[in-house]
Design a protein that fits this description.
The complex is a heterodimer of chains A (137) and B (79).
Chain A: H1 2-5, H2 10-18, E1 24-27, H3 28-36, H4 38-45, H5 49-60, E2 63-66, H6 73-83, H7 91-100, E3 104-105, H8 109-117, E4 123-124, H9 126-136
Parallel strand pairs in A: 1-2, 3-4
Helix pairs in contact in A: 2-9, 6-7
Chain B: E1 2-5, E2 10-13, H1 16-19, H2 23-35, H3 51-78
Antiparallel strand pairs in B: 1-2
Classes of the chains: A mainly alpha (137), B mainly alpha (79).
Chain lengths: 137, 79
């Protein structure tokens, strides 16, 4: 979601660079959140409504949406148990990462450190993404 | 004194043996400290108290409601 907040920001630039070589997935829950907070995202973006719609389409056209029921229940349950004592509300994102064997990109500090402490290191923050971009050069 | 501008930081080297008691250096350090941005307790690369932090915290708070049906179904399976 941070990608949508600032078109000139670091997160969007990282997304643009990574999308040249990597595929992006987004959980449907994030789409629900974007719709729910659309007005506030628009305000924070400092773009006009029209500009924001174009920007939003530019981002969403480069991602594949993962539906809740697409992820096997075993993975949903395992992910829930993994994050239950960190933040259960993030379990769907962890489930998507495990299901896709994909990196979970998040700037959420408690989630990042909590998962790392449990040995789940497939969660990257902006610094890790920078390193990945360096390696991809 | 030397100043080096790197990609992500500026390195200023001040020989302390020469300047350590210099009040202007102490003033410079104080000014630099006030320039430091305090990072959010919850999110990397987000300034504490910023509009962005406020928005992200609100999204996170509302996530409980968004995720409720999903989490309820998992809890029902696990119980």
């Amino acid at each position: 979601m941070s990608i949508l907040i600032k078109k000139s920001g670091k997160t969007f630039k990282q997304f643009q660079s990574l999308s040249l070589k990597h595929s992006f997935y987004i959980h449907y829950a994030t789409i629900e959140e974007i719709l729910k907070h659309h007005k506030k995202l628009l305000k924070a973006s400092k773009l006009s409504e029209n500009e924001f719609e174009i920007f939003e389409s530019e981002v969403l056209n480069r991602v594949t949406i993962i539906q809740y029921n697409e992820i096997p229940t075993k993975i949903q349950d395992l992910s829930f148990l993994l994050v239950a004592d960190i933040d259960e509300d993030d379990s769907a994102f962890v489930a998507a990462s495990i299901y896709l064997s994909a990196i979970l990109w998040s700037g959420d500090k408690p989630l990042y450190s909590g998962l790392h402490a449990k040995g789940f290191t497939n969660i990257f923050d902006a610094t890790d993404i920078d390193k990945l971009l360096e390696e991809n050069k | 004194m030397s100043v080096e501008i790197l990609e992500k930081e500026v390195v200023v080297r001040i020989p302390l043996d020469k300047y350590k008691n210099d009040s202007s250096i102490k003033k410079l350090v104080d000014e630099l400290e006030t320039l430091q941005v305090k990072e959010s307790e919850y999110f990397y690369d987000v300034e504490a108290g910023s509009e962005l932090e406020e928005l992200l915290l609100e999204v996170k708070k509302d996530r409980r409601e968004t995720m409720k049906p999903y989490l309820d179904s998992i809890k029902a399976r696990l119980l």
